[in-house]
Protein backbone atom coordinates (compact mmCIF):
# COMPACT_ATOMS: atom_id res chain seq x y z
CA UNK A 1 0.00 0.00 0.00
CA UNK A 2 1.20 3.47 -0.84
CA UNK A 3 1.58 5.51 2.38
CA UNK A 4 -0.93 8.32 2.69
CA UNK A 5 1.88 10.78 3.48
CA UNK A 6 3.27 10.36 -0.05
CA UNK A 7 -0.12 11.19 -1.50
CA UNK A 8 -0.50 14.25 0.71
CA UNK A 9 2.93 15.46 -0.39
CA UNK A 10 1.36 16.04 -3.80
CA UNK A 11 -1.30 18.37 -2.43
CA UNK A 12 -0.86 22.09 -1.85
CA UNK A 13 -1.74 23.30 1.65
CA UNK A 14 -1.56 26.79 3.05
CA UNK A 15 -1.58 26.00 6.74
CA UNK A 16 -3.29 28.43 9.08
CA UNK A 17 -2.00 28.71 12.65
CA UNK A 18 -5.55 28.47 13.87
CA UNK A 19 -6.93 24.90 13.72
CA UNK A 20 -10.33 24.57 12.05
CA UNK A 21 -11.07 21.20 13.72
CA UNK A 22 -11.46 20.69 17.45
CA UNK A 23 -11.94 17.45 19.34
CA UNK A 24 -13.89 17.10 22.52
CA UNK A 25 -11.31 14.84 24.15
CA UNK A 26 -13.55 14.01 27.09
CA UNK A 27 -15.99 12.43 24.67
CA UNK A 28 -13.19 10.79 22.65
CA UNK A 29 -11.87 9.09 25.81
CA UNK A 30 -15.09 7.14 26.07
CA UNK A 31 -15.27 6.23 22.40
CA UNK A 32 -14.75 2.59 21.53
CA UNK A 33 -15.41 2.74 17.81
CA UNK A 34 -12.91 5.44 16.72
CA UNK A 35 -14.39 5.54 13.23
CA UNK A 36 -12.58 8.83 12.51
CA UNK A 37 -9.33 6.85 12.26
CA UNK A 38 -10.76 4.86 9.36
CA UNK A 39 -12.94 7.31 7.48
CA UNK A 40 -10.55 10.28 7.25
CA UNK A 41 -9.17 10.26 3.69
CA UNK A 42 -6.02 12.01 4.86
CA UNK A 43 -5.39 9.66 7.80
CA UNK A 44 -5.25 12.56 10.24
CA UNK A 45 -6.64 10.74 13.27
CA UNK A 46 -4.51 8.34 15.23
CA UNK A 47 -5.11 6.50 18.47
CA UNK A 48 -1.90 6.61 20.51
CA UNK A 49 -1.71 5.13 24.00
CA UNK A 50 -5.46 5.24 24.36
CA UNK A 51 -5.70 8.90 23.42
CA UNK A 52 -6.96 10.29 20.14
CA UNK A 53 -4.45 12.48 18.34
CA UNK A 54 -5.07 14.40 15.19
CA UNK A 55 -3.54 17.03 12.99
CA UNK A 56 -5.54 19.53 10.97
CA UNK A 57 -2.69 20.72 8.74
CA UNK A 58 -3.27 18.27 5.89
CA UNK A 59 -7.04 18.27 6.07
CA UNK A 60 -8.69 17.87 2.65
CA UNK A 61 -11.80 19.64 4.04
CA UNK A 62 -14.28 16.94 3.03
CA UNK A 63 -16.24 16.83 6.31
CA UNK A 64 -16.39 13.03 6.50
CA UNK A 65 -15.07 12.89 10.09
CA UNK A 66 -17.80 14.99 11.65
CA UNK A 67 -20.50 13.16 9.69
CA UNK A 68 -19.14 9.75 10.72
CA UNK A 69 -18.53 10.60 14.41
CA UNK A 70 -21.50 9.11 16.24
CA UNK A 71 -20.67 11.03 19.41
CA UNK A 72 -20.50 14.41 17.69
CA UNK A 73 -17.12 15.02 19.31
CA UNK A 74 -15.69 16.82 16.28
CA UNK A 75 -16.21 20.54 15.95
CA UNK A 76 -15.53 21.36 12.35
CA UNK A 77 -15.58 24.60 10.41
CA UNK A 78 -13.98 25.81 7.23
CA UNK A 79 -10.48 27.26 7.50
CA UNK A 80 -10.18 31.01 7.01
CA UNK A 81 -10.76 32.14 3.45
CA UNK A 82 -7.80 31.40 1.18
CA UNK A 83 -6.22 28.99 3.70
CA UNK A 84 -6.20 25.23 3.84
CA UNK A 85 -6.16 22.93 0.83
CA UNK A 86 -5.94 24.20 -2.75
CA UNK A 87 -6.51 21.55 -5.38
CA UNK A 88 -4.71 22.32 -8.61
CA UNK A 89 -5.07 19.26 -10.84
CA UNK A 90 -8.24 17.53 -9.70
CA UNK B 1 -15.77 45.72 -0.95
CA UNK B 2 -19.34 46.98 -0.78
CA UNK B 3 -20.75 48.02 2.56
CA UNK B 4 -24.16 47.97 4.11
CA UNK B 5 -24.85 51.24 2.31
CA UNK B 6 -24.42 49.62 -1.05
CA UNK B 7 -26.41 46.40 -1.03
CA UNK B 8 -26.22 43.99 -3.92
CA UNK B 9 -29.27 42.73 -5.76
CA UNK B 10 -28.08 39.22 -4.95
CA UNK B 11 -25.26 37.43 -3.14
CA UNK B 12 -24.13 33.99 -4.25
CA UNK B 13 -22.07 31.97 -1.78
CA UNK B 14 -19.73 29.51 -3.51
CA UNK B 15 -18.22 29.71 -7.00
CA UNK B 16 -18.74 26.13 -8.13
CA UNK B 17 -20.90 25.27 -11.15
CA UNK B 18 -24.16 26.06 -9.32
CA UNK B 19 -23.02 29.39 -7.89
CA UNK B 20 -21.20 30.65 -10.97
CA UNK B 21 -24.12 29.70 -13.24
CA UNK B 22 -26.50 31.61 -10.97
CA UNK B 23 -24.18 34.63 -10.80
CA UNK B 24 -23.66 34.61 -14.56
CA UNK B 25 -27.41 34.53 -15.26
CA UNK B 26 -28.12 37.27 -12.70
CA UNK B 27 -25.36 39.52 -14.00
CA UNK B 28 -26.57 39.05 -17.58
CA UNK B 29 -30.02 40.11 -16.42
CA UNK B 30 -28.48 43.39 -15.26
CA UNK B 31 -28.58 42.67 -11.52
CA UNK B 32 -25.68 43.52 -9.24
CA UNK B 33 -24.31 40.31 -7.79
CA UNK B 34 -21.49 39.33 -5.46
CA UNK B 35 -20.02 35.84 -5.93
CA UNK B 36 -18.16 34.80 -2.78
CA UNK B 37 -15.64 31.93 -2.79
CA UNK B 38 -13.68 30.61 0.20
CA UNK B 39 -10.87 29.17 -1.93
CA UNK B 40 -7.87 31.11 -3.22
CA UNK B 41 -9.55 30.73 -6.61
CA UNK B 42 -12.79 29.10 -7.75
CA UNK B 43 -12.27 25.33 -7.95
CA UNK B 44 -9.54 25.25 -5.27
CA UNK B 45 -11.83 23.33 -2.90
CA UNK B 46 -13.80 21.40 -5.48
CA UNK B 47 -13.55 17.80 -6.60
CA UNK B 48 -15.63 15.77 -9.07
CA UNK B 49 -14.97 12.67 -11.18
CA UNK B 50 -15.36 14.73 -13.28
CA UNK B 51 -17.90 14.28 -16.05
CA UNK B 52 -20.19 17.16 -17.00
CA UNK B 53 -23.35 15.80 -18.62
CA UNK B 54 -25.93 17.80 -20.56
CA UNK B 55 -23.40 20.51 -21.46
CA UNK B 56 -26.09 22.32 -23.48
CA UNK B 57 -27.56 23.63 -20.20
CA UNK B 58 -25.02 26.45 -20.25
CA UNK B 59 -25.15 27.06 -23.98
CA UNK B 60 -27.99 29.60 -23.83
CA UNK B 61 -25.76 31.91 -21.79
CA UNK B 62 -22.47 30.84 -23.36
CA UNK B 63 -23.06 29.71 -26.96
CA UNK B 64 -20.55 27.11 -28.15
CA UNK B 65 -18.59 27.53 -24.93
CA UNK B 66 -16.92 24.14 -25.38
CA UNK B 67 -14.74 25.70 -28.08
CA UNK B 68 -13.22 27.96 -25.46
CA UNK B 69 -13.79 26.35 -22.06
CA UNK B 70 -11.12 24.17 -20.43
CA UNK B 71 -12.96 20.89 -20.98
CA UNK B 72 -10.80 17.80 -21.41
CA UNK B 73 -12.50 15.35 -23.77
CA UNK B 74 -16.03 14.91 -25.16
CA UNK B 75 -17.58 11.59 -24.21
CA UNK B 76 -18.30 8.99 -26.90
CA UNK B 77 -17.72 5.84 -24.91
CA UNK B 78 -19.30 4.72 -21.66
CA UNK B 79 -18.30 1.53 -19.91
CA UNK B 80 -19.88 -0.10 -16.88
CA UNK B 81 -17.70 -2.84 -15.44
CA UNK B 82 -18.60 -5.50 -12.90
CA UNK B 83 -15.62 -6.61 -10.87
CA UNK B 84 -14.93 -9.67 -8.81
CA UNK B 85 -11.65 -10.07 -6.98
CA UNK B 86 -9.90 -11.47 -10.05
CA UNK B 87 -12.21 -10.91 -13.02
CA UNK B 88 -14.26 -8.29 -14.82
CA UNK B 89 -17.27 -8.20 -17.10
CA UNK B 90 -18.16 -4.98 -18.91
CA UNK B 91 -20.90 -3.29 -20.86
CA UNK B 92 -19.11 -1.11 -23.37
CA UNK B 93 -21.20 1.46 -25.21
CA UNK B 94 -19.87 3.75 -27.89
CA UNK B 95 -21.49 6.07 -30.39
CA UNK B 96 -20.40 8.80 -32.73
CA UNK B 97 -23.79 10.41 -32.25
CA UNK B 98 -22.43 11.93 -29.03
CA UNK B 99 -19.45 13.30 -30.96
CA UNK B 100 -20.92 16.58 -32.16
CA UNK B 101 -22.21 19.79 -30.55
CA UNK B 102 -23.86 20.23 -28.13
CA UNK B 103 -22.27 16.91 -27.08
CA UNK B 104 -23.54 14.49 -24.44
CA UNK B 105 -20.85 15.17 -21.88
CA UNK B 106 -17.27 16.21 -21.21
CA UNK B 107 -14.60 15.20 -18.80
CA UNK B 108 -13.06 18.16 -17.04
CA UNK B 109 -10.88 19.17 -14.11
CA UNK B 110 -12.57 21.38 -11.55
CA UNK B 111 -9.77 23.82 -10.63
CA UNK B 112 -9.57 24.79 -14.30
CA UNK B 113 -13.22 24.61 -15.26
CA UNK B 114 -14.67 26.30 -12.17
CA UNK B 115 -12.16 29.11 -12.49
CA UNK B 116 -13.15 29.62 -16.09
CA UNK B 117 -16.90 29.56 -15.38
CA UNK B 118 -16.51 32.07 -12.55
CA UNK B 119 -14.51 34.31 -14.91
CA UNK B 120 -17.51 34.27 -17.27
CA UNK B 121 -19.72 35.49 -14.43
CA UNK B 122 -17.14 38.19 -13.74
CA UNK B 123 -17.07 39.24 -17.41
CA UNK B 124 -20.84 39.58 -17.25
CA UNK B 125 -20.48 41.98 -14.34
CA UNK B 126 -20.57 39.85 -11.19
CA UNK B 127 -18.15 40.83 -8.42
CA UNK B 128 -16.03 37.77 -7.58
CA UNK B 129 -14.67 37.85 -4.02
CA UNK B 130 -12.23 35.00 -3.36
CA UNK B 131 -10.45 33.81 -0.17
CA UNK B 132 -13.56 34.66 1.83
CA UNK B 133 -15.57 32.31 4.04
CA UNK B 134 -19.21 33.06 4.73
CA UNK B 135 -19.94 32.00 8.32
CA UNK B 136 -23.56 32.94 8.65
CA UNK B 137 -26.63 34.56 7.23
CA UNK B 138 -27.99 37.94 8.29
CA UNK B 139 -31.68 38.22 9.10
CA UNK B 140 -34.35 40.82 9.56
CA UNK B 141 -37.05 38.97 11.43
CA UNK B 142 -37.56 35.81 9.30
CA UNK B 143 -36.10 37.35 6.18
CA UNK B 144 -32.55 36.57 5.04
CA UNK B 145 -31.02 39.92 4.11
CA UNK B 146 -27.32 39.20 3.69
CA UNK B 147 -24.27 37.21 4.73
CA UNK B 148 -21.58 37.50 7.39
CA UNK B 149 -18.08 36.92 6.00
CA UNK B 150 -15.19 35.99 8.28
CA UNK B 151 -13.28 39.26 7.85
CA UNK B 152 -13.39 42.82 9.07
CA UNK B 153 -16.48 44.70 7.92
CA UNK B 154 -17.62 41.39 6.56
CA UNK B 155 -21.40 41.95 6.51
CA UNK B 156 -22.80 42.11 2.99
CA UNK B 157 -26.43 42.79 2.22
CA UNK B 158 -28.81 41.69 -0.52
CA UNK B 159 -32.52 40.84 -0.64
CA UNK B 160 -31.57 37.50 -2.24
CA UNK B 161 -28.91 35.09 -1.02
CA UNK B 162 -28.16 31.94 -3.01
CA UNK B 163 -26.39 29.24 -0.96
CA UNK B 164 -24.10 27.36 -3.34
CA UNK B 165 -21.73 26.42 -0.56
CA UNK B 166 -21.33 22.78 -1.47
CA UNK B 167 -21.84 19.36 0.08
CA UNK B 168 -21.26 20.50 3.65
CA UNK B 169 -23.60 23.51 3.27
CA UNK B 170 -23.43 25.02 6.72
CA UNK B 171 -25.70 27.80 5.47
CA UNK B 172 -28.56 25.43 4.60
CA UNK B 173 -28.25 23.89 8.07
CA UNK B 174 -27.99 27.22 9.87
CA UNK B 175 -31.07 28.45 8.01
CA UNK B 176 -32.95 25.39 9.22
CA UNK B 177 -33.46 24.02 5.71
CA UNK B 178 -31.26 20.91 5.91
CA UNK B 179 -30.87 18.31 8.68
CA UNK B 180 -27.56 17.12 10.17
CA UNK B 181 -26.24 14.50 7.77
CA UNK B 182 -26.32 10.80 8.52
CA UNK B 183 -23.34 8.67 7.56
CA UNK B 184 -25.49 6.41 5.37
CA UNK B 185 -26.73 9.21 3.10
CA UNK B 186 -23.29 10.68 2.41
CA UNK B 187 -20.44 9.14 0.45
CA UNK B 188 -16.75 9.89 0.43
CA UNK B 189 -14.97 10.13 -2.89
CA UNK B 190 -11.19 9.86 -3.08
CA UNK B 191 -9.41 10.43 -6.33
CA UNK B 192 -6.05 10.66 -8.04
CA UNK B 193 -5.17 12.47 -11.22
CA UNK B 194 -2.57 10.51 -13.16
CA UNK B 195 -0.33 11.95 -15.85
CA UNK B 196 -0.28 9.88 -19.04
CA UNK B 197 0.51 11.26 -22.48
CA UNK B 198 -2.43 11.89 -24.80
CA UNK B 199 -1.25 9.41 -27.43
CA UNK B 200 -1.06 6.57 -24.91
CA UNK B 201 -4.52 7.45 -23.58
CA UNK B 202 -5.98 7.36 -27.08
CA UNK B 203 -4.33 4.03 -27.89
CA UNK B 204 -5.16 2.44 -24.56
CA UNK B 205 -8.80 3.50 -24.45
CA UNK B 206 -9.56 3.21 -28.13
CA UNK B 207 -10.15 6.92 -28.69
CA UNK B 208 -9.13 9.40 -31.36
CA UNK B 209 -8.48 13.12 -31.12
CA UNK B 210 -10.59 14.81 -28.48
CA UNK B 211 -12.78 11.78 -27.78
CA UNK B 212 -13.11 10.59 -24.21
CA UNK B 213 -14.63 7.83 -22.14
CA UNK B 214 -15.93 7.10 -18.68
CA UNK B 215 -15.62 3.76 -16.97
CA UNK B 216 -17.61 3.06 -13.83
CA UNK B 217 -16.93 -0.04 -11.76
CA UNK B 218 -19.34 -1.96 -9.54
CA UNK B 219 -18.61 -4.80 -7.14
CA UNK B 220 -15.11 -5.50 -5.95
CA UNK B 221 -13.94 -1.98 -6.88
CA UNK B 222 -14.40 -1.09 -3.21
CA UNK B 223 -13.84 -4.53 -1.70
CA UNK B 224 -16.50 -5.30 0.90
CA UNK B 225 -17.40 -1.65 1.34
CA UNK B 226 -20.50 -0.18 -0.33
CA UNK B 227 -19.43 1.96 -3.25
CA UNK B 228 -17.94 1.95 -6.70
CA UNK B 229 -14.94 3.00 -8.72
CA UNK B 230 -14.40 5.24 -11.71
CA UNK B 231 -11.76 5.85 -14.34
CA UNK B 232 -12.17 8.81 -16.71
CA UNK B 233 -9.97 9.99 -19.55
CA UNK B 234 -8.82 13.60 -19.64
CA UNK B 235 -6.63 15.16 -22.32
CA UNK B 236 -3.29 14.02 -20.92
CA UNK B 237 -4.32 12.72 -17.52
CA UNK B 238 -6.60 10.04 -16.12
CA UNK B 239 -8.98 10.59 -13.20
CA UNK B 240 -9.27 7.47 -11.07
CA UNK B 241 -11.15 7.15 -7.83
CA UNK B 242 -13.58 5.35 -5.63
CA UNK B 243 -16.77 6.52 -3.96
CA UNK B 244 -17.79 4.80 -0.72
CA UNK B 245 -20.72 5.08 1.65
CA UNK B 246 -19.37 6.65 4.85
CA UNK B 247 -21.35 4.41 7.22
CA UNK B 248 -20.07 1.35 5.37
CA UNK B 249 -16.43 2.53 5.58
CA UNK B 250 -16.89 3.07 9.31
CA UNK B 251 -18.54 -0.31 9.79
CA UNK B 252 -15.90 -2.24 7.85
CA UNK B 253 -13.07 -0.16 9.37
CA UNK B 254 -11.24 0.20 6.09
CA UNK B 255 -9.45 3.29 4.79
CA UNK B 256 -10.64 4.74 1.51
CA UNK B 257 -7.12 5.36 0.23
CA UNK B 258 -6.22 1.70 0.81
CA UNK B 259 -9.27 0.74 -1.25
CA UNK B 260 -8.14 3.13 -3.97
CA UNK B 261 -4.74 1.42 -3.97
CA UNK B 262 -6.39 -1.97 -4.20
CA UNK B 263 -8.59 -0.74 -7.05
CA UNK B 264 -5.59 0.60 -8.97
CA UNK B 265 -3.91 -2.79 -8.62
CA UNK B 266 -6.92 -4.83 -9.73
CA UNK B 267 -5.90 -7.00 -12.72
CA UNK B 268 -8.56 -5.31 -14.88
CA UNK B 269 -7.48 -1.79 -13.89
CA UNK B 270 -3.70 -1.96 -13.45
CA UNK B 271 -2.92 -2.25 -17.19
CA UNK B 272 -5.01 0.87 -17.85
CA UNK B 273 -3.02 3.06 -15.44
CA UNK B 274 0.39 1.47 -16.05
CA UNK B 275 3.34 3.87 -16.30
CA UNK B 276 1.28 6.85 -15.20
CA UNK B 277 2.52 9.36 -12.65
CA UNK B 278 0.28 10.55 -9.82
CA UNK B 279 -0.11 14.35 -9.93
CA UNK B 280 -2.57 14.94 -7.13
CA UNK B 281 -4.71 13.20 -4.56
CA UNK B 282 -8.05 14.66 -3.48
CA UNK B 283 -11.15 13.87 -1.50
CA UNK B 284 -14.68 15.20 -1.22
CA UNK B 285 -17.97 14.31 0.37
CA UNK B 286 -20.96 13.64 -1.89
CA UNK B 287 -24.61 13.94 -0.83
CA UNK B 288 -25.94 10.76 -2.44
CA UNK B 289 -29.09 10.33 -0.40
CA UNK B 290 -31.20 11.67 -3.26
CA UNK B 291 -34.88 12.40 -2.87
CA UNK B 292 -34.96 11.13 0.73
CA UNK B 293 -32.53 13.79 1.95
CA UNK B 294 -33.91 16.68 -0.05
CA UNK B 295 -33.89 19.83 2.10
CA UNK B 296 -36.41 22.61 2.11
CA UNK B 297 -35.14 24.55 -0.91
CA UNK B 298 -35.93 28.14 0.02
CA UNK B 299 -37.19 30.56 2.61
CA UNK B 300 -37.65 34.32 2.58
CA UNK B 301 -34.52 35.80 0.97
CA UNK B 302 -32.69 32.49 0.53
CA UNK B 303 -32.42 29.67 -2.03
CA UNK B 304 -30.19 26.58 -1.89
CA UNK B 305 -28.61 25.17 -5.06
CA UNK B 306 -26.27 22.40 -6.24
CA UNK B 307 -24.59 20.04 -3.77
CA UNK B 308 -25.76 22.31 -0.96
CA UNK B 309 -29.28 21.14 -1.80
CA UNK B 310 -28.18 17.52 -2.25
CA UNK B 311 -28.72 17.66 -6.02
CA UNK B 312 -26.65 14.60 -6.85
CA UNK B 313 -28.11 11.94 -9.07
CA UNK B 314 -26.55 8.68 -7.91
CA UNK B 315 -28.65 5.95 -9.43
CA UNK B 316 -26.25 3.15 -10.23
CA UNK B 317 -26.24 3.63 -13.99
CA UNK B 318 -25.88 7.37 -13.51
CA UNK B 319 -23.63 9.47 -11.34
CA UNK B 320 -24.28 13.11 -12.10
CA UNK B 321 -23.99 16.35 -10.19
CA UNK B 322 -22.63 19.28 -12.14
CA UNK B 323 -25.56 19.33 -14.59
CA UNK B 324 -27.95 19.35 -11.62
CA UNK B 325 -25.88 22.11 -10.07
CA UNK B 326 -25.99 24.26 -13.20
CA UNK B 327 -29.72 23.72 -13.79
CA UNK B 328 -30.54 24.57 -10.16
CA UNK B 329 -28.31 27.65 -10.24
CA UNK B 330 -30.09 28.87 -13.36
CA UNK B 331 -33.51 28.16 -11.82
CA UNK B 332 -32.57 30.17 -8.72
CA UNK B 333 -31.43 33.04 -10.95
CA UNK B 334 -34.74 32.98 -12.82
CA UNK B 335 -36.62 33.06 -9.52
CA UNK B 336 -34.45 35.92 -8.25
CA UNK B 337 -35.19 37.94 -11.40
CA UNK B 338 -38.93 37.42 -10.92
CA UNK B 339 -38.62 38.45 -7.28
CA UNK B 340 -36.75 41.62 -8.21
CA UNK B 341 -39.28 42.47 -10.92
CA UNK B 342 -42.05 42.27 -8.30
CA UNK B 343 -39.96 43.56 -5.35
CA UNK B 344 -41.17 40.50 -3.48
CA UNK B 345 -38.56 38.44 -1.64
CA UNK B 346 -40.96 36.62 0.63
CA UNK B 347 -40.97 32.88 1.25
CA UNK B 348 -43.92 32.56 -1.09
CA UNK B 349 -42.18 34.42 -3.90
CA UNK B 350 -39.01 32.31 -3.64
CA UNK B 351 -41.02 29.10 -3.37
CA UNK B 352 -41.30 29.45 -7.15
CA UNK B 353 -37.73 28.15 -7.24
CA UNK B 354 -39.00 24.70 -6.33
CA UNK B 355 -41.71 24.97 -9.02
CA UNK B 356 -39.03 25.68 -11.63
CA UNK B 357 -37.10 22.64 -10.48
CA UNK B 358 -40.19 20.46 -10.56
CA UNK B 359 -40.63 21.43 -14.20
CA UNK B 360 -37.03 20.48 -14.98
CA UNK B 361 -35.14 17.20 -14.84
CA UNK B 362 -33.66 18.19 -11.48
CA UNK B 363 -36.54 17.19 -9.24
CA UNK B 364 -38.22 14.94 -11.78
CA UNK B 365 -35.19 12.64 -12.06
CA UNK B 366 -34.49 12.66 -8.33
CA UNK B 367 -38.11 11.74 -7.65
CA UNK B 368 -38.46 9.18 -10.43
CA UNK B 369 -35.30 7.37 -9.29
CA UNK B 370 -35.95 7.84 -5.58
CA UNK B 371 -35.63 4.10 -4.90
CA UNK B 372 -32.22 3.92 -6.57
CA UNK B 373 -29.95 4.95 -3.64
CA UNK B 374 -31.22 2.08 -1.47
CA UNK B 375 -30.88 -0.31 -4.39
CA UNK B 376 -27.32 0.83 -5.10
CA UNK B 377 -26.36 0.08 -1.48
CA UNK B 378 -28.04 -3.34 -1.52
CA UNK B 379 -25.54 -5.73 0.08
CA UNK B 380 -25.85 -8.30 -2.71
CA UNK B 381 -25.67 -5.78 -5.54
CA UNK B 382 -22.46 -4.55 -3.91
CA UNK B 383 -20.80 -7.80 -2.95
CA UNK B 384 -22.49 -10.82 -4.52
CA UNK B 385 -24.00 -10.24 -7.96
CA UNK B 386 -20.97 -8.64 -9.69
CA UNK B 387 -18.85 -11.61 -8.62
CA UNK B 388 -21.58 -14.04 -9.76
CA UNK B 389 -21.71 -12.37 -13.18
CA UNK B 390 -17.94 -12.72 -13.52
CA UNK B 391 -18.08 -16.32 -12.31
CA UNK B 392 -20.83 -17.15 -14.81
CA UNK B 393 -18.71 -15.72 -17.62
CA UNK B 394 -15.68 -17.63 -16.42
CA UNK B 395 -17.60 -20.91 -16.28
CA UNK B 396 -19.24 -20.26 -19.63
CA UNK B 397 -16.05 -19.44 -21.48
CA UNK B 398 -13.78 -21.97 -19.77
CA UNK B 399 -12.41 -24.40 -22.30
CA UNK B 400 -10.95 -27.52 -20.80
CA UNK B 401 -11.90 -30.37 -23.08
CA UNK B 402 -15.05 -31.41 -21.21
CA UNK B 403 -18.56 -31.30 -22.73
CA UNK B 404 -20.18 -27.85 -22.73
CA UNK B 405 -23.40 -26.99 -20.96
CA UNK B 406 -26.00 -24.53 -22.19
CA UNK B 407 -26.09 -21.01 -20.78
CA UNK B 408 -29.10 -21.55 -18.50
CA UNK B 409 -27.44 -24.52 -16.85
CA UNK B 410 -24.18 -22.61 -16.37
CA UNK B 411 -26.08 -19.77 -14.71
CA UNK B 412 -28.06 -22.06 -12.43
CA UNK B 413 -24.96 -23.98 -11.37
CA UNK B 414 -23.09 -20.76 -10.65
CA UNK B 415 -25.95 -19.33 -8.61
CA UNK B 416 -26.67 -22.51 -6.64
CA UNK B 417 -26.10 -22.10 -2.93
CA UNK B 418 -25.08 -18.44 -3.32
CA UNK B 419 -28.42 -16.63 -3.40
CA UNK B 420 -31.80 -18.17 -2.55
CA UNK B 421 -34.33 -17.81 -5.36
CA UNK B 422 -36.67 -15.79 -3.14
CA UNK B 423 -33.91 -13.28 -2.42
CA UNK B 424 -33.02 -13.10 -6.07
CA UNK B 425 -36.63 -12.36 -6.99
CA UNK B 426 -36.90 -9.72 -4.28
CA UNK B 427 -33.70 -8.03 -5.47
CA UNK B 428 -34.98 -8.24 -9.03
CA UNK B 429 -38.12 -6.44 -7.95
CA UNK B 430 -36.04 -3.80 -6.14
CA UNK B 431 -33.87 -3.33 -9.25
CA UNK B 432 -36.98 -3.00 -11.36
CA UNK B 433 -38.51 -0.38 -9.11
CA UNK B 434 -35.22 1.51 -8.91
CA UNK B 435 -34.34 1.62 -12.59
CA UNK B 436 -36.79 -0.04 -14.97
CA UNK B 437 -40.38 0.92 -14.29
List its traits.
heterodimer; A: 90 residues; alpha+beta; Alpha-Beta Plaits; two-stranded antiparallel sheet; two-stranded antiparallel ribbon; 4 helices; B: 437 residues; FAD/NAD(P)-binding domain; D-Amino Acid Oxidase, Chain A, domain 2; 3 domains; 9-stranded mixed beta sheet; 6-stranded mixed beta sheet; 16 helices; 20 strands; 34% helix; globular
Could you please describe the fold and organization of this structure?
The complex is a heterodimer of chains A (90) and B (437). Chain A has a single domain (4-86), classed as 2-Layer Sandwich (Alpha-Beta Plaits), CATH 3.30.70. Chain A has helices at residues 4-8, 25-29, 35-39, 64-68; strands at residues 12-14, 21-23, 45-48, 51-54, 74-76, 84-86. Helix content of chain A is 22%, strand content 22%. By secondary structure, chain B is of the alpha+beta class. Chain B has three domains: 10-70 and 109-180 and 290-369, FAD/NAD(P)-binding domain (3-Layer(bba) Sandwich); 186-287, D-Amino Acid Oxidase, subunit A, domain 2 (D-Amino Acid Oxidase, Chain A, domain 2, 2-Layer Sandwich); 374-436, no CATH class. Helix content of chain B is 34%, strand content 26%. In chain B, the strands form four sheets. In chain B, strands 3, 4, 5, 6, 12, 13, 14, 15 and 16 form a nine-stranded mixed beta sheet that branches. In chain B, strands 7-2-1-11-18-17 form a six-stranded mixed beta sheet. A three-stranded antiparallel beta sheet of chain B has the order 8-9-10. In chain B, strand 14 and strand 15 form a beta hairpin.
Amino acid sequence: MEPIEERLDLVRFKVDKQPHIRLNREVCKECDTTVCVYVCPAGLFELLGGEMHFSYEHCLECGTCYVACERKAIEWEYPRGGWGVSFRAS
Amino acid sequence: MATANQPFNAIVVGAGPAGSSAALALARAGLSVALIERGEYPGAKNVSGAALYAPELLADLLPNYWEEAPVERYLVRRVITFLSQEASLAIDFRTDRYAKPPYNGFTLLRPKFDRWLASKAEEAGALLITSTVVDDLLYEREQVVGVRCRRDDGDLYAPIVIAADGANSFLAKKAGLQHEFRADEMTLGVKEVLRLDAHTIEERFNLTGEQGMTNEYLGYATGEVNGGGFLYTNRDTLSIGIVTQISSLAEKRIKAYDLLDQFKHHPAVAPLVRDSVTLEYSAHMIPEGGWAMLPQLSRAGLMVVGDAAGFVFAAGLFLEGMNFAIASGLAAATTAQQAHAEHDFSALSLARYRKHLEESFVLQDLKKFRHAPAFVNNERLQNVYPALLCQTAENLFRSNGTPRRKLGRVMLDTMRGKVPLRTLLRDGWQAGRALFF
